[in-house]
TrEMBL record:
Pfam families attached to this UniProt entry: PTS-HPr
Species in which this protein is naturally found: Coprococcus aceti
InterPro entries assigned: HPr (IPR050399), HPr-like (IPR000032), HPr-like_sf (IPR035895)
Chain segments annotated as transmembrane: none
Residue ranges of every copy of the HPr domain listed in the record: 1-86
Name by which UniProt lists this protein: HPr family phosphocarrier protein
Length: 86
């Protein structure tokens, strides 16, 4: 299991489209992938769960992955969530 904490920096807010893309990215990996913020731990492959997270630019999230491709999953989600930090 690995985890990485990131600060969200995306165009616009985490509305339906960015959340849907995030779920699609997470779903490409066999590993279990969760996003953690405060006391919430949400399955990153669950569209309903991700919609309930209500994260926005400047939010701090921890990406947690466990499985054969955990490092690739964390890296892909981290890159997507912080794409405007570059």
């Amino acid at each position: 299991m690995i985890e990485k904490t990131v600060v969200v920096s995306m165009m616009g807010e985490a509305e339906e489209r960015p959340v849907a893309v995030l779920v699609q990215i997470a779903s490409q990996y066999d590993s279990k992938v969760h996003l953690v913020t405060g006391d919430k731990r949400i399955n990153a492959k669950s569209i309903m769960g991700m919609m309930s997270m209500n994260f926005e630019n400047g939010s701090e999230l921890t990406i947690v992955a466990d499985g054969a491709d955990e490092e690739a999953a964390v890296n892909a989600l981290s890159e997507y969530l912080t794409k405007n930090n570059k």
